[in-house]
């Protein structure tokens, strides 16, 4: 199970959704490539939230381009390489933006409100199509809080 050392909502979204389509090692590679992409832009501070993640999709021109330019950062894309959950990643970033969740603290705050949590879980699961992804992101977020505390 990848556990990036940064306290970054964007990375948690990528980890949770990417882990539904590939191995932990491949998931970590996608996260590393996202971080490398952000570093190459000169924008990486290890604190990306939903807005910064969405901006990467805007910068490259959409999901298909994100797969090649971010998900496979500077690597040649091939049909046999690790699948990238780019569409779900973008849609969850949009969902979090609508819910005004832009950090792990914001996400954990939403989880502590039963009504908001239920709506968020329903919307997140509808996007991911996999209840495991919801459990994964909540587990990751809670682990980040315990590391910081």
How would you describe what is shown here?
The protein is mostly helical and about 150 residues long. The chain has one domain. The protein is about 70% helix and about 0% strand. It is built from eight helices and no strands. The protein has helices spanning about 10-20, 25-40, 50-60, 65-70, 85-100, 105-110, 115-130, 130-149. α1 (about 10-20) crosses α5 (about 85-100), α3 packs across α5 (about 85-100) and α5 runs antiparallel to α7 (about 115-130). The chain is globular, with a radius of gyration of 14 Å. The two termini are about 20 Å apart. About 35% of the residues are buried.
Please provide a brief summary of the model.
The protein is mainly α and about 150 residues long.
Which short descriptors sum up this protein?
149 residues; mainly alpha; 68% helix; globular
Counting structural domains, the number is 1
- Poorly predicted regions are none
Helical fraction equals 55-70%
Query: Which term fits the overall shape?
Result: globular
The number of E-state strands comes to 0
Number of helices: 8
Strand content: under 5%
Please tell me how large the radius of gyration is. Answer: 14 Å
Order of helices and strands: HHHHHHHH
Structural class by helix and strand composition = mainly alpha
State the separation between the terminal residues, measured CA to CA. 21 Å
What integer is the average pLDDT?
Answer: 86
Main pleated sheet:
none
Secondary structure: elements and pairs:
Blueprint: H1 9-18, H2 24-41, H3 50-60, H4 63-71, H5 86-98, H6 104-111, H7 114-128, H8 131-148
Helix pairs in contact: 1-2, 1-5, 1-8, 3-5, 5-7, 6-8
């Amino acid at each position: 199970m990848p556990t990036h050392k940064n306290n970054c909502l964007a990375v948690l979204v990528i980890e949770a959704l990417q882990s539904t389509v590939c191995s932990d090692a491949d998931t970590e590679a996608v996260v590393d490539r996202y971080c490398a992409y952000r570093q190459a832009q000169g924008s990486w501070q290890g604190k990306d939230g939903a807005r910064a993640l969405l901006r990467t999709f805007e910068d490259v021109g959409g999901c298909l381009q994100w797969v090649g330019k971010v998900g496979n950062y500077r690597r040649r894309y091939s049909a046999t390489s690790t699948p990238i959950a780019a569409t779900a990643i973008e849609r969850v970033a949009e969902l979090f933006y609508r819910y005004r969740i832009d950090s792990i603290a914001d996400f954990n705050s939403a989880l502590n409100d039963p009504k908001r949590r239920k709506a968020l879980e329903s919307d997140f699961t509808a996007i991911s199509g996999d209840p495991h992804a919801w459990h994964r992101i909540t587990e990751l977020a809670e682990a980040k809080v315990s590391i910081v505390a």
